[in-house]
């Protein structure tokens, strides 16, 4: 009878997921929860998020210049600040999901916020009171820019959307992978397939944004386009909610950001204490199978593991006063990623130009094909196309060839990042050359001419090179930060990756402001970044980005070499020691 009961119990356990629960809080049953159907319901949110965010970002600069009558550099900074804030708020969304709300509630709440934002933006672009009067064609210099109230409403709507994007984006991919059990080989393979489909759906959403949505904005009306975004997101939320009973939910283990601050605070408070002569005397309470070996780097952080008076309360350590060696080593591992992290930011600064100045360039050039006018924002379709083509070539040709040649399945994460950085440098150099040609045509043409007699397809190489670079650096960064971070900080590592995108946009805004200030008196008083790019020297700005890219690439190589040489030093692992006695004896 006991054997039968044991067999029953083992059979029962094989149909449940140990680290997940259902919507009622019971252990998740594999036959009733998780798998591809719930994961597919989650992907709808990601399509609509990309549709909204990219549909707004890639064509916002033309609205700011043409409708709100803002200067070129100001318009570019509005776009980059909006995108930078969207990615920066991913850290907030991740913190709330890990500490309080859980991924499901986080997605639902912030999706509603984005729906509200896009709906408000549709209304703001519809009401004539919220935009300045159209320019007088005979006196374009008399255009009045948007006033403070009109810009305030626009900023409010954009940052509501940014809040929604950051909150939901931090949890969508994680909640999708929660639907698969890593300990089940079949479901583990399905999870890998989910990652491929996840990136595919991101690309589909972006393609729809830069083609269909941008066309609707230019030819039908922006309010219609943004209204479509709001309605589609609301439908996606209803689809998400319909799967509530089918999802698997994983319990929050606490925010890695809090854990990092705990180590820093404990180390700072014990900065005047001497490290013990042996690492065996440092505090460790992590099960031996999960421990991380002690390393010599960042020794200041080791002070967080020194046992001091008052560190314990009711036999348990105060995490703000005493941290285990493993917890300290996790923070060290994250700190070791920072040089690589810092040297990838400049790529996203280059990327930002594809949605700002490159789109503005396109708006001044000939875009007609047999009577059809290509929207300026739709030029980014070549950018997205480059990503898809590069990924396909790499997956089908490069990886098999590299495996035969080197015995490795493709380039390493650091190699992919290096390739992405190099391609971005060539992209900016190509953009500078194309801009020289465009400016030459602009100088020989009447200043009041609408479209310059130069084809917009001159810009394709810069879109293609930077797009191909993104395919390498995006996958390389994601792989590097996830695989090289400690197991308990995977969410944090994803946030670290997304923060490079955020800072890239903010650095772009800062660089534009500095260049405009420094070069304001040159080029006949127009500077490099003139209010009208027909009178500026955008080629010099692109050249500056190429030079900065070269300097950054050298720093990246140094950081990569340093990271490879850094190896952990084995330390003797013992049971938890507190001033020479076990924690049980202490109690």
Automatic annotation (TrEMBL):
The keyword Transmembrane applies. The chain crosses the membrane at residues 82-101, 108-128, 148-168, 198-217, 223-241, 334-354, 374-394, 414-434, 454-474, 495-515, 541-563. It is a multi-pass membrane protein. One of its GO terms (biological process) is oligopeptide transport. Belongs to the major facilitator superfamily. Proton-dependent oligopeptide transporter (POT/PTR) (TC 2.A.17) family. GO terms for cellular component: membrane. One of its GO terms (molecular function) is transmembrane transporter activity. PROSITE patterns: PTR2_1 (PS01022). This is Protein NRT1/ PTR FAMILY 6.2.
């Amino acid at each position: 009878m006991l054997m039968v009961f044991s067999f029953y119990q083992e059979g029962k356990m094989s149909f449940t997921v140990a680290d997940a629960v259902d919507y009622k809080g019971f252990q998740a049953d594999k036959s009733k929860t998780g798998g591809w159907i719930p994961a597919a319901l989650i992907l709808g949110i990601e399509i609509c998020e990309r549709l909204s965010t990219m549909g707004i970002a890639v064509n916002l600069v033309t609205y700011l210049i043409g409708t709100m009558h803002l200067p070129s550099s100001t318009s570019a900074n509005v776009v980059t600040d909006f995108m930078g804030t969207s990615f920066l708020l991913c850290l907030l969304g991740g913190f709330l999901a890990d500490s309080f709300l859980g991924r499901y509630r986080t997605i639902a709440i912030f999706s509603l916020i984005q729906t509200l934002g896009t709906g408000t933006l549709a209304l703001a672009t519809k009401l004539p009171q919220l935009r300045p009067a159209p320019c007088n064609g005979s006196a374009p210099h008399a255009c009045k820019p948007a006033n403070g109230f009109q810009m305030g409403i626009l900023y409010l709507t954009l940052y509501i959307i940014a809040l929604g994007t950051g909150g939901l984006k931090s949890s969508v991919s994680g909640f999708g992978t929660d639907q698969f059990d890593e300990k089940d080989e079949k479901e583990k393979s399905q999870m890998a397939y989910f990652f491929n489909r996840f990136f595919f759906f991101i690309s589909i959403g972006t393609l729809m944004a830069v083609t269909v949505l941008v066309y609707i904005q230019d030819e039908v009306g922006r309010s219609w386009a943004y209204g479509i975004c709001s309605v589609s997101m609301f439908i996606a939320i209803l689809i998400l909610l319909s799967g509530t009973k089918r999802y698997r939910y994983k319990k929050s283990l606490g925010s890695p950001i809090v854990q990092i601050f705990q180590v820093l605070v404990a180390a700072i408070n014990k900065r005047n204490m001497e490290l013990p002569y042996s690492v065996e005397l440092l505090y460790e309470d992590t099960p031996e199978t999960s421990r991380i070996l002690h390393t010599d780097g960042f020794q200041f952080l080791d002070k967080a593991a020194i046992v001091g008076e008052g560190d314990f309360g009711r036999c348990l350590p105060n995490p703000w006063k005493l941290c285990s060696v493993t917890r300290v080593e996790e923070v060290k591992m994250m700190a070791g990623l920072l040089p690589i992290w810092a040297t990838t930011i400049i790529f996203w600064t280059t990327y930002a130009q594809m949605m700002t100045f490159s789109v503005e360039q396109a708006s001044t050039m000939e875009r007609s094909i047999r009577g059809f006018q290509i929207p300026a924002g739709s030029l980014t379709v070549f950018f997205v196309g480059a990503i898809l083509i590069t990924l396909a070539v790499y997956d089908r040709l490069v990886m098999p060839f590299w495996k035969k040649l080197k015995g490795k399945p493709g380039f390493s994460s650091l190699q992919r990042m290096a390739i992405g950085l190099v391609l971005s440098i060539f992209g900016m150099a190509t953009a500078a050359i194309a801009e020289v040609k465009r400016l030459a045509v602009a100088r020989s043409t009447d200043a009041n001419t609408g479209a310059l007699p130069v084809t917009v397809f001159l810009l394709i190489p810069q879109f293609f090179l930077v797009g191909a670079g993104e395919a390498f650096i995006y996958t390389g960064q994601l792989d590097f930060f996830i695989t090289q971070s400690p197991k308990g900080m995977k969410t944090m590592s994803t946030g670290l990756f997304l923060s490079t995108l955020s800072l890239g946009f903010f650095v772009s805004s800062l660089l534009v402001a500095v260049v405009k200030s420094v070069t304001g008196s040159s080029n006949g008083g127009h500077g490099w970044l003139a209010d009208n790019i027909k009178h500026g020297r955008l080629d010099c700005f692109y050249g500056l980005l190429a030079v900065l890219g070269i300097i950054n690439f050298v720093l990246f190589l140094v950081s990569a070499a340093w990271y490879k040489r850094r190896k952990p030093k084995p330390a003797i692992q013992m049971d938890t020691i507190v001033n020479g006695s076990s924690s049980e004896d202490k109690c």
